[in-house]
Amino acid sequence: MKCIVLDAMGVIFRAADDVADLLIPFVREAGGSTNAKGIDSAYLDASLGIIEADDFWNRVGLAPSVEDNYLSRHSLVPGVARFLRNAKHQRIPVWCLSNDIDRWSRKLRVAFDIEGLLAGAIISSAVNVRKPDRRIYQFLLEQSGYRAEDLLFVDDRARNVEAAATIGIRSLRFSLDVGYGRLTEQLLGVPSKHALPRMREG
């Protein structure tokens, strides 16, 4: 393993289904659309790069100025910042591979002080394809410069893990019940008690 690749929602950020758990409730509470299917459809289009982030907000009946308020509802999975810091200390690059809106993803990575701990990020809206489509994994290989056998991909959804495995990427399914303690030991060889000091984790 020369590089680790982490999914965002459910692996880096706590909300595994951010649309259902965070986005739809936020839009409704903020006075926008109450149509869950319509909100989900607009988000899908934005996460595929079909529409821009501002267009998403307009489509669900809200001004784009609410965006940062929405993003503030996210939080990090406990232990992920320490995991990233340990990986960087060991010079093991970590990439992010996420189905999301690029602007939102970038804002979240900066807000939680993890942007500098990542070697790069492939976000679906920027490449116009979502996991588990094989093409997004090919984009990852092209952009990172690694071969499939050099990577270890971690995702909380079985279909995404299985799709990565079909092109030769070793993959693990993440569970919040197991968390980063065991993952740090398995992947970085660092017992939890010897991990570097805790960073801010939201």
Quick summary:
The chain has helices at 18-29, 36-47, 53-59, 67-71, 80-89, 102-111, 124-127, 134-144, 158-166, 179-188; strands at 3-6, 94-98, 120-123, 151-155, 170-173. It is α/β, with parallel strands linked by helices and 202 residues long. It folds into two domains: 3-15 and 75-194, 3-Layer(aba) Sandwich (Rossmann fold), CATH 3.40.50.1000; 18-71, no CATH class.
Explain how this protein is built.
This protein is an alpha/beta fold and 202 residues long. The chain folds into two domains: 133 residues, HAD superfamily/HAD-like (Rossmann fold); 54 residues, no CATH class. 45% of the residues lie in helices and 11% in strands. It has a five-stranded parallel beta sheet, sandwiched between helices. α1 crosses α2, α2 packs antiparallel against α3 and α5 packs parallel to α10.
Q: What attributes characterize this protein structure?
A:
globular; single chain; disordered C terminus; Rossmann fold; alpha/beta; 10 helices; 11% strand; 5-stranded parallel sheet; 202 residues
Helix content: 40-55%
**Total count of strands:** 5
Q: Let me know the average pLDDT.
A: 93
For the record, the CATH class of the largest domain is: Alpha Beta
Major β-sheet profile: 5 strands, parallel
CATH architecture of the largest domain: 3-Layer(aba) Sandwich
Number of domains: 2
Low-confidence stretches: 193-202
Gap from first CA to last CA: 29 Å
Question: How are strands sequenced across the largest beta sheet?
Answer: 3-2-1-4-5
What's the alpha carbon Rg, rounded to whole Å?
17 Å
